[in-house]
Design brief:
Elements: H1 2-39
Length: 40
């Protein structure tokens, strides 16, 4: 049971990291698109 709980915590940490990375990439693409519009 203890090992399973540790595994679940590990998965939760990974999902949080992945979520943060996706949000960061999304923000980067959105900001780059808006900057391109300003240049035009």
């Amino acid at each position: 049971m203890a090992r399973k709980k540790g595994m679940l915590e590990h998965i939760a940490i990974i999902s949080v990291c992945v979520n943060g990375l996706l949000t960061y990439l999304l923000n980067m693409t959105l900001t780059s698109k808006t900057e391109q519009k300003k240049i035009d």
